[in-house]
Amino acid sequence: MEHIEYNIHNLLNLYATVGKPFNGYASDSAIGYSRIQDSEWPNKIWSNQKLTPDVLQNIKILIESSQINLRFIDFEFDGRANHTLIVQVGFELSNSMPGMHLKLTKPFETSIRLSFRMVTEMAEAKIWTAVFKQSFGYVISEDLVLKNLNKIHFYIAFEDSKPIGVVKLHLTNNIAGIYSLGVPVAFRGNGYAKDIMHFVLNKAIQQGATVATLQASKLGQGMYERMGFKIDFTMHSYKLKTQ
Q1: I want to staple 111 with a disulfide (CB 3.0 to 4.6 A). Which of 9, 14, 195, 201 is the partner?
Q2: Which residues are in the N-acetyltransferase domain (predicted)?
């Protein structure tokens, strides 16, 4: 159960961290959200308490009144799903991702074919966001990257001088949240994602992390499982049927 809490806390802390510089984060005892103009991420809204029809109606109202397109996220664990209730209020499922963790006990083998650069200025932020868009098909703004360099580590992977992948690392205490591990389609099938993952996990270990957490895409889940990551819960993302 503690790994679920670590994972969700790291994720929601990431949303809070990136939203605050844009005055786009708010949270109370019932609902939290993080939204950023001109960026397609994170733009999420969630419940901070047990989900009820009243809470869902308030979430629905906030989404309908927002000029930024928000997605509602809900976490399923121990077989407790809120899907029926959420659909009844007017939402439909967009996607689902398993939340996973890995205990960090020893360093990982690293590849000499790749070099890595942590983003520190505008030119690198442009490269990071461009490779991210090529990998995932949506936009994280350069401004978001630049305003969070002192809190989140954004890395670019290069083969020779060619950028072939990105990842970001968010640390909360001894928990390392791994996000945005992406390799553009043109470079997939070469084992780059595994090399990038080993690199960022080693960076996390160097900074004192003892557990890594992530939410896996279908594309990456098999690789993470082979590395030893365990599934703890499922994160469901919903949109309004009218969106």
Answers
A1: 195
A2: 114-243
Distance CA 47, CA 35 (A): 15
Q: Indicate if 165 and 137 belong to the same structural domain.
A: yes
Containing domain of residue 188, as a range?
114-233
Long-range contacts at 12-15 (CB < 8 A, ≥ 24 apart): 12/46, 13/170, 13/172, 14/42, 14/152, 14/170, 14/177, 14/179, 15/42, 15/44
CA distance 98 to 83: 16
Residues near 51 by Cβ (< 8 Å), separated by ≥ 6?
74, 82, 85, 86
- Domain CATH number, residue 169: 3.40.630.30
What's the total number of domains in the chain? 2
State how far the Cα of 82 lies from the Cα of 84, in Å rounded to an integer: 6
Average pLDDT on 156-164 reads 98
Q: Flag whether 19 is in a domain.
A: yes
- Per-residue pLDDT band at 37 (split at 50, 70, 90): very high
Concatenated DSSP letters for 151-177? TSEEEEEEETTEEEEEEEEEEETTEEE
Q: What is the model's pLDDT at position 243?
A: 80
